[in-house]
Design a protein that fits this description.
By secondary structure, the chain is of the alpha/beta class. The protein has two domains: about 150 residues, P-loop containing nucleotide triphosphate hydrolases (Rossmann fold, 3-Layer(aba) Sandwich), CATH 3.40.50.300; about 90 residues. Helix content is about 45%, strand content about 15%. It is built from eleven helices and nine strands. The strands form three sheets. The chain has a five-stranded parallel sheet with strand order 2-5-8-1-9, sandwiched between helices. Strands 3-4 form a two-stranded antiparallel ribbon. It has a two-stranded antiparallel ribbon with strand order 6-7. Bound molecules: adenosine-5'-diphosphate and magnesium ion (MG). Adenosine-5'-diphosphate (ADP) binds next to α2 and α9.
Length: about 260
């Protein structure tokens, strides 16, 4: 993994710090690839606190949070899940895309998130696990416009009273971020790519296109440019081709925009 300094362009680290000190859990809301995971990693690194991360999906089960019984050398033991571990250790627990989990998983999580900050380990000894005072939880959700995302139940939402919005950054900020990942200059071409990305994002926001490119794409564009590839070819590879997934008409719309923006 590359080590790149996170650019805290909207003061999110400070909000996270205040929430941490106040013992208030945080929800980060924003589309994919706007820096949510990087933000929390940077925050944990600055705090020098251990970070445990879980990515939620429809396949996430209670056992992933709580733990599972295992058989070792004829003895049954209990392998604690990340929720329990992080509560014991006072870690930062990062729950990514929490709204994609099933209701029963969220219900079990809710037991730990309520003001008592404890959970009954009914799966093994019945022990009551009380969270370390430093235990801190940060979750993310994608906006509901994204297909496949579910609404987070209000009761879970209320466990995260601090809400940070992380949208796509303004053009000049995105340029600064992207330039952190390359050694060359290419400034004017990268600005074009960011403009293209924003056109596609706006079209996706009003459902004229099916896909909204993220900072991952603008960073990838700059990296390929830095390897000596031609701008138009890179624009097609990184921004254009993906739209063939929704058919030729969708692809052609984007291809025309690319042709009008990049000469070679
Ligand atoms: N503010 C930023 N400073 C530096 N890099 C960033 C920033 N925001 C996003 N990135 C980079 O953009 C990419 C996507 O970010 P990521 O944190 O994975 O987004 P998300 O978790 O919202 O999907 C990563 O390569 C990340 O390092
Ligand atoms: Mg992420």
């Amino acid at each position: 993994m590359e080590e790149t300094q996170y650019l805290d362009w909207n003061n999110s680290i400070q909000i996270l710090n205040k929430a941490y000190d106040a013992g208030l859990f945080v929800l980060i809301i924003g589309p994919k690839g706007t820096g949510k995971t990087s933000l929390v990693r940077e925050f944990a690194k600055n705090k020098n606190v251990n970070l445990e991360s879980m990515n939620f999906s429809l396949r996430t089960r209670e056992s992933h949070l709580i733990g599972t019984k295992t058989l070792k050398d004829g003895n049954v033991s209990f392998d604690e899940g990340l929720l329990i571990k992080s509560m014991r250790n006072g870690d930062i627990l990062y729950l990514d895309e929490i709204n994609s989990a099933e209701a029963d998983v969220l219900l079990r999580l809710d037991e730990a998130l309520d003001d008592r900050r404890q959970i009954v380990l009914k799966e093994s000894t019945g022990e009551v696990i009380k969270a370390n005072d430093n235990w801190f939880v940060v979750s993310t959700i994608n906006p509901l416009t994204h297909s496949g995302t579910k609404e987070l139940p209000p009761q879970i939402l209320s466990r995260f009273p601090v809400r940070i919005r992380l949208e796509y950054p303004p053009e000049d900020i995105e340029l600064q971020i992207v330039k952190k990942y390359i050694s060359g200059d290419h400034e004017s071409t990268i600005i074009q790519a960011i403009k293209l990305a924003n056109i596609l994002r706006q079209a996706a926001a009003v459902e004229e296109l099916f896909y909204s490119p993220s900072l991952r794409e603008t960073i990838a564009f700059a990296k390929l440019l830095d390897k000596g590839m031609m701008p138009k070819e890179v624009a097609n590879i990184v921004f254009g081709n993906v739209y063939t997934q929704w058919g030729d008409i969708e692809y052609q719309k984007v291809s025309d925009i690319i042709t009008s923006m990049f000469e070679n």
